[in-house]
């Protein structure tokens, strides 16, 4: 790791690239050839040299993922931001425990260090012919049990994809019938499998499988499953004969441990399954220190350190709360918090740790029983945005990082006044699985409300994929649903919901009006007749203005236009709309096709013009 002034780092970065032109280089600089956020494109590759340049913030997901693509004996070059941060300090401090992780600073004697590295003896990696003994056992099981779904979950570099590729060759030798097809998050993610399969299998994108292939038409292998949305995986399993599922579960390939627990449990309920383990790394030595360093620094394999059953079963024991920031926690407590978040949520990654440690707007509320952490709320401080930005945010022309709740309400519901409020947005609620259904989550929400009222916060809220079980939890709280979108969230497979809880007279009144408006829209989607009052009309007209003069999509304004039509009928205003387009609850793509427009943009532009005419005529 290089840690020093930016000019000094640039000199050494360029020197590495000149000396090692085959180095895979990713950077967060705008002029970089490969942007660091494109790191997923290089999963599944093998590299002797990888260089990561972080000038602003450390992209922990990219660091964890691309370290796993370096071959044994290769080098990972990491250039750290010049500015200090808690997360940077953590990386540097943890590296001291590992001899093969070097910190290079301006005062480092590079000549001596290079000589030491050149003459040092690396751990001997085992040279094995493929398949290894463990791989052969798995392949034999897959061939002997062709009707079973074989699950391979392991850390990166353990040979999952190689095993599946060799199994495909064995399948073709032993069986005939439906062809083998592999799918994954992207073609590059399955490159290793396809290489070892030797044309015995072909890649088909999962969206093409679901849209163009008839049920049971292929025998399917799913590689890097955690990077595919859960609801998509469920559709694939229900539609095709899935012979095998493989995935990395160490926290950066999409969903991590929370995904693995939930998906494997669900899969075992649907199909006869056999779980296989691959423990020893094949791409590097078992004694290689880089993987151990990253696991420790990024807490990718964090686990609960306390298993006192009395704490979990004694409901009479009082629960205490601690309001804090992650940077103030002990290593023990930080590991407990990260473990809860990893196990409770379908999307967790090392970037969460970096954000919690470095961003002062990210806060934690911990629930403890006998000093053991049994629950946590992670919340973000949002709002009070500059007045000069309000109009462009409401019009959809400006989007600030973070600020999810106020910006969503200002844009989708056209309520720019909420940009003035100070919000606490609940990002995650996680409770230890041994104390679930004891009311710990609701107790945490109640405590957070007390803290927010003491801090004179205007409103609390949350935004998430509206799955039935998550909605059921929130319905037990005083939070009100104020929006449920139409578009499905790709990660969760459910529409996004926004909930709010007003803590001032103004915020309580507005959230109550938006709650009533949201319920009316849900009734309308279910073809229930809606009674329009003056509050509903004012909200609806604002939303229609957002569509007519801003970038709000037509599907987000359909209900609003229906409400306006009830008060001021479109027919009476001499404006003409394509027949029934206000009542058809389909997405933009289907509406475009149904009404014969050449593109979504053409359709929306025409409808925006009609909306402007209607609004002028009904002022």
Secondary structure: elements and pairs:
Layout: H1 6-19, E1 24-27, E2 47-53, H2 60-67, E3 70-79, H3 86-95, H4 110-119, H5 133-144, E4 149-154, H6 160-174, E5 180-183, H7 191-197, E6 202-203, H8 206-212, E7 219-222, H9 230-239, E8 241-248, H10 256-270, E9 273-276, H11 289-298, H12 309-313, E10 319-324, H13 331-344, H14 350-358, E11 362-369, E12 372-383, H15 390-394, H16 404-412, E13 422-431, H17 440-454, E14 459-465, H18 468-475, E15 480-488, E16 495-502, H19 505-525, H20 534-549, H21 554-567, H22 588-594, H23 600-617
Parallel strand pairs: 1-2, 2-3, 4-8, 4-9, 5-6, 5-7, 7-8, 13-14
Antiparallel strand pairs: 10-11, 11-12, 12-13, 14-16, 15-16
Biggest pleated sheet = 7 strands, mixed
Annotation, overall tally of beta strands: 16
Number of helices: 23
The structural class is alpha/beta
% residues in beta strands: 15-25%
The level of helicity is 40-55%
Low-confidence segments, given as residue ranges, are 251-255
- On the 0 to 100 scale, the average pLDDT is 89
Which term fits the overall shape? globular
Q: How far is it from the N-terminal to the C-terminal residue, by CA?
A: 63 Å
Oligomer: single chain
| Physical arrangement of strands within the biggest beta sheet | 10-11-12-13-14-16-15
- Rg result: 27 Å
Describe the structure.
- The chain has helices at residues 6-19, 60-67, 86-95, 110-119, 133-144, 160-174, 191-197, 206-212, 230-239, 256-270, 289-298, 309-313, 331-344, 350-358, 390-394, 404-412, 440-454, 468-475, 505-525, 534-549, 554-567, 588-594, 600-617, and strands at 24-27, 47-53, 70-79, 149-154, 180-183, 202-203, 219-222, 241-248, 273-276, 319-324, 362-369, 372-383, 422-431, 459-465, 480-488, 495-502.
- The model is unreliable at 251-255 (pLDDT under 50).
- The radius of gyration is 27 Å and the shape is globular.
- The strands form 3 sheets. A 7-stranded mixed β-sheet has the order 10-11-12-13-14-16-15, sandwiched between helices. A 6-stranded parallel β-sheet has the order 6-5-7-8-4-9, sandwiched between helices. It has a 3-stranded parallel β-sheet with strand order 1-2-3, sandwiched between helices.
- By secondary structure, it is of the alpha/beta class.
- Helix content is 42%, strand content 18%.
- The protein is built from 23 helices and 16 strands.
